[in-house]
Amino acid sequence: MNKKTHKYQKVNIQGFKHDGTLYRQWNNAIVIADDDEKLVLYLYRAKVQDIKDRKYSVTEPSIWFFYKKHFFNALYLLRPTGNFLYINMSSPYFFEDNTVKYIDYDLDLKDYADKELEIVDITEFKANKVKYNYSNELVNILFKEVNTLLDWKEQHKDIFNQETLNNYVSNLANDCLLLFKEKKLKYFANQYLRTNRLKTLVQSKHDNIIKLYTCGPTVYDSPHIGNMRPVLTSHIFAKANLFHQKAITFVHNITDIDDKIIQRADEEGVHPFEISQKYSREYVQLLKKYGIRTITHLVYVTKSLVMIKGYLNKLLKSNKVIYEDDGVLLDISKVENYGKNVNRDKDIDYEEANFYLWKQSDIQPLYSFNKYTGRPGWHTECAAFINNYFHGETIDYHGGGMDLKFPHHENENAQHQAIYGKDITKNWMHTGQIFYENKKMSKSLGNIIKADDFEPDIFKLIILGTKISAPINLNNVLIKQQENIIKKYKKIIFEAMLYNCDRIVVDDTTKEAVNHLVELNFQKYLFSIDKLISNYNKSLNKETLKHIYTLINLMDFNWHDHLRKNKIKFLELYRIWKIHHDNQDYIQADEYREMLLSESLI
Asked: Disulfide bond among the record's keywords (predicted)?
């Protein structure tokens, strides 16, 4: 009978042939789960030696499933681009001398991402069936188990359930087992969970894909804090839907050619592309700094001109355009319900409302469209991206600042109406403006706050604590309030780590809380966390602690990432502090206490 292992126990693995010959050994695999059905091991840099005395290491993070009753084991090579599953038809494992042992019957199955399950090594199996004298009973068992695997594959069961695998990977990340020195694996955990979770959702036959577009910045200067509110709001909304297993396509644009960029380049005596490339790079770095990882398509105007011209041709065919010597305009008088979304559909001056789809120019950079040399109109870029990535459909949500409500968003909608006779979106997500000390931020007042100079976690909490359409008035009191909330969250997350409750729980409690984000009621989400913390302080219920961890974890705070990466170190500091404290060695205890206090962990 197999002895029970314990979590984090390091074990060896030995594979034998049917005649008892040891053909391969793996050293120092880590136990991550052991239940009534299977043993789950994690391997990375595990040392391997085979029968031919070849020695090498496992170079990819891997999870190996061994079954107590099934005649197979399964090795997952974890890859953000798509997992590779290798299944050995083998005996159920047995455990002795701190070693997982199994007999390999030389028939294998491979499962690549987006491919059918493939049975391999049949020739070797047939040869070894004769060589090792496999009984008919054994052969029948093995092929019956192959059918079991095919059924599991079809039913997305056990090892073929991506969410189950994602949870193992998520817990490995929480346990600091996915931190790698190798540069190519630096962001492995985030890349893996994001891409594989998205793939699972996109492949779902039952869930509709949520279509989201959010307007991005015109990159003529360093992005300011106001640039981050719409995209961060959309990111939080996307994260919530992903938590609910809803697939989402999130398109976000960067306007990298515009009159403002040209003017800035002229002032600095450089080419406009130098300006746009510099500030585009800054913005992309800010997306990373603010933890915005849900964008599925980040699109640039200069890289999408063929797409934009194709969209313009659709508009030309609608016969709702006006040709002028200096460009092509949309004829608003031919578009139904123009201005209705912003209550400006009465007494419209149509001639004044007409806007350029393509504007003639003689200032570089220039592009050609039909007989015109110039650039696409600003309102056309976003409408073209939406048309391309969502195939002319009405999208579910369109994000952007309140200042874009008119004319930009109304003009996007007008173009979609001109081609398809329907609105461009079902819902607008307009975010309020940002003020500093009750004053609008402007260059003339010198009070513009650059996004790179603001603490992302503070800003994320401010957004969560404010109705999305309401203005935000940044001030020292508001910032101090968020700092205190972060300290409270740090303490509770560290407590979850102490009690091994830093686990993702998806149940009615967490789903109900996250649903507030889906409904764009961010304040209620924070209230749900506060209520759970209050309940935990009274009950000390560990399930409640897991709920709190799950909800705070969803927000991807940078401080939480720091805590995860240094978890082992902080837990050790806490352990030493407790020893000194319990031994009444208060001088030593105070030294460690100060270290923990400096991180706001106690």
From this structure: no
Q: What domains lie within the chain, and their CATH numbers?
A: 9-170 (2.40.380.10), 205-302+379-451 (3.40.50.620), 474-599 (no CATH)
What 522-531 contacts at long range (C-beta under 8 Å, 24+ apart), as own/partner pairs, is: 522/236, 522/463, 522/464, 522/465, 522/466, 522/467, 522/468, 523/464, 523/465, 523/466, 523/467, 525/464, 525/551, 526/461, 526/464, 526/465, 529/489
Exposed e or buried b per residue across 307-345, where buried means at least 16 C-beta atoms within 10 angstroms of its C-beta: bbbebbeebbebebbbeeeebbbbbbebbeebbebeeee
How far is Cα 446 from Cα 435, in angstroms, rounded to an integer?
12
In 3D space, the residue among 488, 536, 537, 490 whose CA is nearest the CA of residue 509 turns out to be 536
Query: Contact, 106 vs 139, CB < 8 A?
Result: no
Distance in angstroms (rounded) separating the CA atoms of residues 179 and 575: 22
Tokens of 426: 């079902």
Q: Identify how many contiguous H helices and E strands the chain contains and give both numbers.
A: 19, 24
For residue 203, give every residue at least 6 positions away whose Cβ sits within 8 Å of its Cβ, in sequence order, or none. Answer: none
- Output the pTM of the full model: 0.69
The pLDDT-based confidence of 2 (bands split at 50, 70, 90) is: low
> Three-state DSSP class for 470?
coil
Q: Are 295 and 252 in contact (CB under 8 A)?
A: yes
Q: How many alpha carbons fall within 13 Å on the CB side of residue 17?
A: 13
Give the Å distances, CA to CA, from 362 to 191, 326, 372, 374, 601.
Answer: 44, 10, 10, 7, 61
Dist. CA 63–CA 76, nearest whole Å: 5
Element (H, E) at 523: helix 522-539
In whole angstroms, what is the distance from residue 590 CA to residue 345 CA?
A: 69
CB 14 within 8 A of CB 64: no
How do strand 367-369 and strand 99-112 relate by DSSP bridges?
Answer: unpaired
For range 152-157, the mean pLDDT: 78
> What pLDDT is stored for residue 103 in this prediction?
96
User: What phi, psi does 446 have (nearest 5°)?
Assistant: 65, 30
Q: Which residue has the tokens 């070797």?
A: 124
Whether the upstream peptide bond of residue 365 has omega within 30° of 0, thus cis, is yes
- pLDDT tens per residue, range 7-55: 889 999 999 999 999 999 999 999 999 988 999 999 998 899 988 778 8
Residue 214 has which token pair? 């959010």
Measure the CA–CA gap between 481 and 106, rounded to whole angstroms: 63
Q: The tokens 């299977």 sit on which residue?
A: 38
Q: Can you read off the two tokens belonging to residue 54? A: 């070849």
Give the Cα separation of 64 and 84 in Å (integer). Answer: 12
One-letter identity of residue 371: K
Residue 150 identity: L
Element (H, E) at 300: strand 297-300
State the amino acid at position 296 in one-letter form.
T
Which band of pLDDT confidence, cut at 50, 70 and 90, is reported for residue 200?
low
Name the pairing type of β-strands 210-214 and 355-360: unpaired
Average pLDDT over residues 482-498: 97
Backbone angles phi, psi at 226, to 5 degrees: -65, -30
